[in-house]
Design goal:
- This protein has helices at 9-18, 60-73, 87-90, 117-125, 154-158, 162-178, 211-220, 273-284, 297-307, 309-315, 331-350, and strands at 22-32, 41-45, 50-51, 77-82, 99-108, 131-138, 148-149, 181-185, 189-195, 201-205, 224-229, 245-248, 265-268, 290-293, 318-319, 355-358.
- With 367 residues, it is an alpha/beta fold.
- The chain has a 6-stranded parallel β-sheet with strand order 12-11-10-13-14-15, sandwiched between helices.
- The longest helix is centred in the last third of the chain and has 20 residues, at 331-350.
- It is elongated.
Length: 367
């Protein structure tokens, strides 16, 4: 799922503080081979600066020109790039990607409280699942291209036709819950519904020197990392400025962590056998789907044997030795292998791009 807001936030927050409008580019339809999938976002300032990518950097320059018009007029624009065949070379981009992309450009500025960016940023800060809807096709004057449907603005939703209002509310709720893009079709309009992609939350148990590159790689991906260590010299926030939290706590207190069930992966790397045993015992009682353990297979088997029946219940979720076999033994190489394996696990769990079609309401209910 593609709607990641984190890379766009610095530009958004800077321009909002200045009172400047921006253009939000949203990839709403693709065919063939494309760099990104539906739901991907790009943000463009009025001076041409941009954050996020919808292609490998090939289309962004052309999108900036369209964005200037959208920012100045406030009128949304749907831009199509068809890179199939020789016509692509004729009109100047020469991408050779053999795909089609429809990109909707919307103005986000003081006129509309920078929506939908304001809503998405607030949900991301609260780590709260949400979804937004936007009209991407319309033959109705009362429902123009770019009309937004936001779950926190019932008044705005009630102001649009009932056919869209009823479907939009249901689609936004489902999309936020299952993380799936949806397209809702009415008699004369099409609504594109996309959920916010919340970054993975990762738990590192052990904050030694080799945890530093793990945090750095994870932060580069926008992940939220919590570190736990019982050693004051290691559990220091100043050592991990990119971590969301650094906790000084005894291993025995891990079950008392209030949001332990919210992590999608936990990595045990304390380099201390008795400590790792305590951590694994606590993790066995959670539903965290990925548990990584640093160290060789023999170490893994000793710990599992010491855990007894608890160890057998943990085995199916345990990745040990943790990390993909990429080669290299430096802390950076090991960190890259760990983050790569967690990345593969998280994205395989989420599945490939999924788009749900929501049927229109019966004619008797449509406005």
């Amino acid at each position: 799922m593609e709607t990641s807001l984190g890379p766009l936030l610095p530009l958004f927050e800077r321009e909002r503080a200045r009172g400047h409008a921006l253009a939000l580019g949203m990839l709403v339809e693709v065919a063939g081979s494309t760099y990104r999938k539906p739901g991907a976002l790009m943000l463009i300032a009025d001076n041409g600066e941009y954050s996020g990518l919808l292609s490998g950097g090939c289309l962004e320059g052309d999108l900036r020109e369209h964005s200037r018009t959208v920012i100045a007029s406030g009128t949304p624009r749907l831009v199509r790039y068809d890179t199939r065949g020789p016509d692509d070379l004729v009109w100047g981009l020469g991408l050779g990607c053999e795909g089609v992309m429809d990109i909707l450009l919307l103005r986000c500025g003081p006129q509309n409280d920078w929506q939908p960016l304001t809503h998405l940023a607030a949900a991301l800060a609260a780590y709260q699942a949400t979804a937004i809807g936007v009209v991407v096709q319309s033959a109705s004057e009362e429902l123009p291209l770019g009309t937004l449907a936001l779950p926190t603005d019932p008044a705005a939703t009630d102001a649009i036709p009932r056919s869209l209002s009823v479907l939009a509310r249901a689609a936004l709720t489902r999309s936020a819950a299952d993380g799936r893009v949806a397209r809702v079709e009415g008699p004369s309009w099409k609504l594109f519904v996309v959920p916010l992609s919340l970054p993975p939350r990762i738990l590192l148990l052990g904050a030694g020197p080799d945890a530093m590159p793990v945090v750095e790689f994870a932060a580069r991906l926008g992940w939220k990392v919590t570190l736990v260590d019982h050693r004051p010299a290691y559990a220091a926030a100043a050592r991990f400025p990119q971590a969301e939290r650094v906790l000084l706590a005894r291993p025995e207190s891990l079950p008392q962590l209030p949001d332990l069930s919210h992590f999608c992966a936990a990595i045990v790397m304390s380099h201390h056998l008795p400590t790792d045993l305590i951590y694994l015992r606590a993790l066995a009682d959670t539903h965290i789907p990925y548990v990584g353990l640093l160290g060789p297979a023999a170490r893994r088997e000793k710990l599992l044997a010491d855990l007894g029946a608890t160890g057998q219940s943990l085995r199916a979720r345990l990745h040990a030795p943790v990390g993909l076999p990429l080669g290299g033994r430096s802390p950076e190489s090991v960190a890259l292998a760990i983050v790569a394996e967690v990345h593969a696990f998280v994205h395989q769990s989420a599945g490939d791009e999924r788009v749900r079609a929501v049927p229109a309401l019966p004619a008797s209910v449509q406005a």
